[in-house]
Model the fold of this input.
Amino acid sequence: MGQYRDRKIHQIDPQTGAILRTIESNRFVTGVTWIDGELWHGTWEGDESDLRRVDPRTGEVLERLEMPPGVGVSGLESDGGDQFFCGGGKSGKVRAVRRPRRGRATGSGSESPVDSTRLGRISSDKQ
Done:
């Protein structure tokens, strides 16, 4: 569960509702989803927004999908496959963002080639 203004992600015990673990983010948390054992969360602060894959134990940012300037992420869900669905804030739009394929080299921190079906770019800096 994301806690927006406090910039936290909580793991909640479904039986008791108790907080089992908390991960802190350096940005507002606008959505949280799990897919194939990966924890992803959306951020939006000022005019910048991104999707982040984080280590669920440490909170370390492992990968980022940066949105173009002015594109906000307000909510995050997965289709269980290769797409994320993100709310678009005040735009009222829902955006589909392609999840990076595993096994592709994304550790350079540089921009990856953009295909026309994916919004954003991939980087792996540890912000």
Summary: The domain at 2-123 is CATH 2.120.10.30 (Neuraminidase). The chain has a mean pLDDT of 78.
